[in-house]
Amino acid sequence: MQHKTLIKVRGYHLDIYQHVNNARYLEFLEEARWGYLEDSGDIEWFAAHGLAWVIVNININYKVAATMGQTLEVYTQFSKVAGKSAVVSQEVRIAGTDAVAADAQVTFVCLNQKTGKAVTIDGELRSRLEQHLAN
């Protein structure tokens, strides 16, 4: 399942070169992941099961500069579910164009909130995550 989040580029997102600062893309990607979790119902499910997503790695590629006033479309989808981690693929596109501003592979683990330890992704948790895998 692919999810789309729209983000309007504001002046405070820009750096001295008048394009979106590289660190802001991490915020845009996080905003899109939260939107995905809210819309899928996963926030409630994870909370009910005492689990939390914890990002352990982000690989991001910056491709085209985004500037003030543009609308960004952030596409989010699961691409891999492994034994202890999963990967979410994200792409930031400039709306109304074919331009990709950035793309990222975000690896996370599911943390047991009581123990503070990563859990094995199996059973109901695996089923929950695998239902989101891109076809």
**Name of the level-1 CATH class:** Alpha Beta
- Sketch the topology as an H/E string, one letter per element: EHHEEEEH
Tell me about the biggest sheet?
Answer: 5 strands, antiparallel
Alpha-carbon distance between the termini? 8 Å
Can you give keywords for this protein?
HotDog_dom_sf; single chain; 135 residues; Thiol Ester Dehydrase, Chain A; YbgC/YbaW; 5 strands; hydrolase; 5-stranded antiparallel sheet; alpha+beta; 4-hydroxybenzoyl-CoA_TE; Thioesterase
In short:
This protein is 25% helix and 38% strand. With 135 residues, it is α+β, with helices and mostly antiparallel strands. The protein has a 5-stranded antiparallel beta sheet with strand order 1-3-4-5-2.
Structure overview:
This protein has 135 residues and is an alpha+beta fold. It has a single domain (3-130), classed as Thiol Ester Dehydrase, Chain A, CATH 3.10.129.10. Helix content is 25%, strand content 38%. It has three helices and five strands; from the N terminus they run βααββββα. It has helices at 22-40, 42-48, 123-130, and strands at 3-8, 51-62, 71-81, 86-94, 100-112. It has a five-stranded antiparallel sheet with strand order 1-3-4-5-2. A hairpin with a 4-residue loop joins strand 3 (71-81) and strand 4 (86-94). The longest helix is centred in the N-terminal third of the chain and has 19 residues, at 22-40. The model has no long low-confidence stretch (mean pLDDT 95).
